[in-house]
Amino acid sequence: VSTGNGCGHTVLAPHSGTLSSKNYPGTYPNHTACRWRLRAPPGTSLLLAFGDVDLEPSERCARSSLLLSDPQAGTAYGPYCRNSVPSAPLLVTNSSSVTVLFNSTSHRSGRGLLLSYATSQHPVRGTHYTQEHIRGAEQALTPLPVCSSVYCPAGCKDIHGDIWGNPSQGYRDTSVLCKAAVHAGVISDELGGQVTLSREKGITLYESAFANGLHSKRGSLSEKRLIFHRVCLLSSACDNVLEVAAFNASSWWHEMDELGQARAWGAERAALGTSGHSWAAEPGAEAAWLELDLGTRRNVTGIVTKGSSERHDYYVTSYRVSSSRDGKNWKPYRASGAQEDKVFEGNADSHGEVSNAFIPPIVARYVR
Fold first, then answer.
1. Which residues form a coiled coil (predicted)?
2. Where does a domain end: 200, 229, 258?
């Protein structure tokens, strides 16, 4: 739970989370406060990773401060500011409940704070930083082994910093690691999770891509690159392209061309590799849907969408997903713990491909 007018980007999930002061990494406002209450499941304790504590220095941190309290043990940590920083980047508590309090008065400088937490079941190792930052904060990753496993907390998607590359090529090793993991679709931003990656030889050029609500940048040569390895929950490989036995749709457009001939933008034209025009719903249709019959129950880990650029600049900007095992009873896809159907970000033009991951995967025969 977070309260106050000084709260910035905040994601508090059951086993991990991320919190920051308002405007981070810009200068935090004057005369604000935020209180975060962090709770871990019973029988576990909280681990807190200090990503950045840059509060204007003052005597006893009176001008701006970060204070942490452990009500179960009756202990407190801090106050912290720029001239009184935490002694270590990782704070291990013996409590399942910690209160984080940030206060500011009049000041002139300071980025504010960035903090991550996880439970003792999932030690915080990955955080949100580039390889250079990780080397300074976590000796276990110096240098990054051939294959390494780190835990990324929830809330990495909106952290400040850039990523270069895409899931198929890998990522420039200066990319923000956990943000890149969200882009690659190996973890969800809502929950975070364990990430397995390797550091391999770099490539000349990293192509940009839009995936899982994040834009990556086009990047130049790097000595090393990060490759994320997906953990498959079922026996089938994660990156296999599933064959569609049949397509169906709520409607489709019957276009009349310049010669007065009809051309159907039928459901069967929705396959990603189809040449020429694609599927399009009847103009003016509301609640249009496209349905894929996979022939048998399959493990669906994600979806890739693309528009139709032949003569018409058509594409889908956002969509919801539902699935069925029998074609009659449909279940909407929702993020873990969410009460509303998830709305996926689609395409911004008719040329590029956009991918979105399903975490956890959908197990179904029909996807709509």
1. none
2. 229
